[in-house]
Every structure is written in structure tokens, then in C-alpha cells.
Design goal:
With about 475 residues, the protein is mainly alpha-helical. The chain folds into 4 domains: about 15-95; about 145-275; about 275-365, Serine Threonine Protein Phosphatase 5, Tetratricopeptide repeat; about 370-480, Tetratricopeptide repeat domain (Serine Threonine Protein Phosphatase 5, Tetratricopeptide repeat, Alpha Horseshoe), CATH 1.25.40.10. It is about 65% helix and about 0% strand. It contains 24 helices and no strands. It has helices at about 5-10, 20-25, 30-45, 50-60, 70-75, 90-95, 100-105, 140-150, 155-160, 165-175, 185-205, 210-225, 230-255, 260-275, 280-295, 300-310, 320-335, 340-355, 370-380, 385-400, 405-420, 425-440, 445-460, 465-475. Helix 19 (about 370-380) packs parallel to helix 21 (about 405-420). The longest helix is centred in the middle third of the chain and has 24 residues, at about 230-255. The termini are far apart.
């Protein structure tokens, strides 16, 4: 059995990027490539919930060797190649013991100890695939349990099960128990908590998650207060705490708690400036700009988006600069400055067309062509150009990866509102019904507020085809609190 010293050194080893896998992705975006992986899995009877974040983690070298389900899928996609050809490490070198037959491991015949970081099972030395709880066919049952717990509001269950050990760490801190000096395991737990929160938000929206996410955020700052021994760990903790503050801020933002969101974003911004983390600072300004637009402060949105662009320019990510240009466009639209908005939109499209790069931040996995279309639709809607807004919103609904359930509901709600205001009540009612169909999976005050506005616009048209059915069903749909 490996000593604790040996185990720690294994975990502290920095991840090495996987350029071979990145080359195989080619011109596909991470989300597009993830869709190809899922399709290939279906072809051979596997069930994997691969998404853009998983692809990013593989390319960053965080997943040195995939589990057996992903191995079978990748070898099916690239026949004649080995895992080593795909840029992965040999399973024996990652797991600290000889690899066993895939059939035995898939049937659960090989016991694997649980990770102190994620609770997942792995070999004696380090995890060979530490992905989110929805990621493989072997975790499909756990996926259903977490989803049901989330949707039924079991806050204690979800905080512990879905957000991981950081939620439990917060309970320990609240009980005034001594906090040991954090190391790589705690930094890893913090980073995993951020990923899990983003995953749950992508699938279910923010309303049921916001209060539960406060526990890991408290734990993150307790870890910072405890102080790490190594500077590299301290840097990871600061970055992770800042990203977690932004994630919690977004949950507040999407659930209509604007003051809370502003406070969390400011906390992340202060953390970024204190540590000189330009990527975190750009992210905090990006979300601040989005919040300012939604809160009716368009001039502040423009200023924050422009500040983010100044900070992000040296980072080398065209996709990040594209998103920030869209944030600026939203501010100009709010100021009724059509020229400023069009210029920012053109810049966003041109930067987007330059493609992805290794410099793209992990948190931007949601930003693909669908989000580009959706944000442009919001700009035209703000400017009152309903026909153009509806055109872009419709494109967004067609382009969105099914993984992002919340965004599908958001774009469809945008489309319904644009159609209603543009004089197409029957089509608006049809799209509104589609949003209502998704509300058993998605809890987002933002989406519900949009749908309520659409219902008010449609009231004078209740005799149009389908409108009365939509209005009646909407009136009988409970609002989340």
C-alpha cells in the first residue's frame, strides 16, 4: 500500500495537456465533439453523458486515463488506435497496479477504494477518471437519485451528495471543529464543487440550488483562512474560491436575487485582484456586466464588459473576447444605442468565427453557437426588433446541445416572447407550451418571469389558436420560491 507521502506526491503532480486528443477533435467545438462521443456510445450500447467540460478536462490532462466505458467508446470512434495513441497514460501507470479485464471492472468485481476528494473509486495512487456524478453508464443510477433529490427540494441530501465533501466541510466549520491546513485534496474538492454546481445549473436551473451552494462557498473561504502549506495549493484555493463565488453569484442572479449576486461577484473580483488572477477578474467582470444589464443598469454593463475585454485581451482566447463583446452589446441595447450594439455584435461574431483554442477557460463550455444566437436575440429584443430577435432565438433552440436543458428552456422562452410581441400569438403559445413542458426539469425564476411576461402579452389574444390552452396551463403552473 502506498504511503500518504507517496499518495500526496501523486496528487500534486501537475496535469499535462493532451495534444493528441485535441488534434483528434479537429475543428469541432468541445460541445460538438462531446455530442459525437455520445452518438458513438449509443452505437455500441454504452451510456455516457459526455459534455464539453469532460472534453476540456481530457485535453487539459486532468483525466489521464478514461474509465472502461469511455475507453470502449473512444476505441470505437478511432479504430486501430490504442489509448496511448489517443494521448492517455497506460492504465497501470495511473492506477498504481496492473490493469484488470474490462468485463470484471464493469461488473464491479474489483473493489476500488473511495477518493477522499470526490468520493469516487480509484486505485491506490490516484483517480483515473474524476468526472461529475452524471458522467458514465456505471453512475446512471446515481444520476437519477441526484436529479430526483434536487427536483424534490431535499436540500441536505443534495448539498452532501451533489456538491460533494465541501458541503460537509462547511458543516464541520460551523461546528467550530479545528480545520487542518488544506492541501491538494481540498483544492481538488473545491474545483470539483464548482464543476458540479455548473453541471446542475446547466440541467436544472438555479432556484433549487442557490441556498445549497452557500455551504461549499463557506467551506472554501474557511480553507483559505486555514492557510495552505504550498504556494501552488494556495493559488488553486484562491482561484477555486473565486470561481465558486461567481458560480454562487450566478445562481443568485438567475433566481432573481440581484443584490446577492452583486455581492458574490464583487467578492470574486476582490479575490482576483488580490492574487493577480487575470482570468478570474475577466470572468467576474463578465458576470457583473450581465447582471447590470438584467438589473436595468446598461451603462454599467457596458463599462464592466469593456473592463473585462481590457483584462482578457492578453489571455489569448478569442471565444472569451467574443462573449465579452456580446456582454457589451447587451449594454448598448439597453441604452437604445443601436449603432453601438451592432458594432459589438459584429465584433463578437468575428471573434467567434476564429474558433476555439487551448486558452479558452473551462467555465466557457456553455458558450457555443447556440449561446451566441441566444444572446444576439436578447439584444434585438431589447431594441424592439421582434422579427430579428425571433429569428435568432429560433436558431438558438435548434442549435443547443440537449445537455443544457436550462438553456433550451431559456431560448424557447425568449422565442415565445418575441413571437408574442411581434404579432404571432398562435406560434408564441406553441413555444410557450414547450417551455412549460420543461419546467418539471428546470427551476429558474428568470425563465418563469419571461414566461409570465409572454402570458400578459397574449391575454388580449386568448381566442387565437392554442392561446387559451397556454394561458390556462400557465396559470395553473406553480412558481418556485
Amino acid at each position: 500500500m502506498a504511503s500518504s507521502r507517496e499518495t500526496a506526491s501523486q496528487h500534486d503532480r501537475p496535469a499535462r495537456p493532451n495534444p493528441a486528443f485535441r488534434q483528434l477533435r479537429g475543428r469541432h467545438s468541445p460541445a460538438e465533439f462531446a455530442a459525437l462521443v455520445r452518438r458513438a456510445a449509443r452505437e455500441i450500447g454504452e451510456r455516457v453523458s459526455c459534455d464539453a467540460r469532460y472534453i476540456g478536462r481530457v485535453e487539459a490532462g486532468e483525466i489521464r486515463c478514461p474509465n472502461y466505458a469511455y475507453e470502449r467508446v473512444f476505441l470505437h470512434m478511432f479504430p486501430g488506435r490504442t489509448l496511448t495513441d489517443l494521448g492517455f497514460s497506460p492504465r497501470s501507470s495511473v492506477r498504481g497496479r496492473g490493469a484488470r479485464p474490462a468485463e470484471e471492472d464493469a461488473r464491479g468485481l474489483i473493489p476500488r477504494p473511495a477518493s477522499p476528494v470526490t468520493g469516487e473509486t480509484h486505485g491506490a495512487h490516484e483517480p483515473y477518471d474524476t468526472q461529475d456524478p452524471y458522467d458514465t453508464h456505471e453512475n446512471h443510477e446515481e444520476s437519477d437519485v441526484l436529479r430526483r433529490a434536487f427536483m424534490t427540494g431535499g436540500s441536505a441530501t443534495v448539498a452532501a451528495a451533489a456538491l460533494g465533501p465541501l458541503a460537509l466541510a462547511a458543516d464541520s466549520a460551523a461546528a467550530d471543529r479545528p480545520v487542518r491546513r488544506p492541501g491538494a485534496s481540498e483544492a481538488g474538492a473545491l474545483e470539483e464543487a464548482v464543476r458540479r454546481i455548473r453541471l446542475l445549473d446547466d440541467r436544472h436551473g438555479a432556484d433549487g440550488l442557490y441556498r445549497r451552494a452557500a455551504a461549499p462557498l463557506r467551506a472554501a473561504y474557511a480553507l483559505l483562512d486555514a492557510g495552505a502549506v504550498r504556494q501552488t495549493t494556495t493559488d488553486r484555493l484562491h482561484s477555486g474560491a473565486g470561481e465558486l463565488a461567481i458560480s454562487v453569484g450566478w445562481l443568485a442572479h438567475d433566481s432573481g436575487r440581484f443584490d446577492d449576486a452583486r455581492s458574490h461577484y464583487a467578492e470574486a473580483l476582490a479575490t482576483a485582484r488580490m492574487t493577480g488572477d487575470a482570468g478570474l477578474e475577466a470572468h467576474a467582470f463578465c458576470n457583473t456586466a450581465f447582471l447590470a444589464r438584467d438589473a436595468g443598469r446598461p451603462r454599467e454593463a457596458v463599462r464592466a464588459a469593456q473592463a473585462a475585454q481590457r483584462i482578457a485581451r492578453p489571455l489569448g482566447s478569442n471565444r472569451l473576447m467574443s462573449l465579452l463583446a456580446l456582454r457589451e452589446a447587451g449594454g448598448w441595447a439597453g441604452m437604445a444605442d443601436r449603432t453601438g450594439c451592432e458594432r459589438a455584435l459584429a465584433r463578437a461574431q468575428a471573434l467567434f468565427d476564429r474558433g476555439t483554442s487551448p486558452a479558452d477557460p473551462e467555465w466557457m463550455s456553455f458558450y457555443g453557437e447556440a449561446e451566441l444566437e441566444g444572446l444576439e436575440a436578447q439584444c434585438w429584443s431589447t431594441l424592439g426588433d421582434w422579427r430579428r430577435a425571433a429569428r435568432h432565438a429560433r436558431r438558438a433552440t435548434h442549435l443547443q446541445d440537449p445537455h443544457f436543458t436550462r438553456n433550451i428552456a431559456l431560448y424557447t422562452a425568449e422565442l415565445a416572447d418575441d413571437l408574442a410581441r411581434g404579432g404571432h400569438p398562435d406560434e408564441a403559445a406553441t413555444e410557450g407550451m414547450r417551455v412549460l413542458d420543461l419546467l418539471d426539469q428546470v427551476q429558474s425564476s428568470r425563465i418563469q418571469t419571461m414566461l409570465a411576461g409572454t402570458a400578459r402579452v397574449l391575454l388580449p389574444h386568448r381566442r387565437a389558436s392554442g392561446v387559451s390552452d397556454f394561458l390556462e396551463r400557465h396559470a395553473n403552473t406553480p412558481r418556485t420560491v
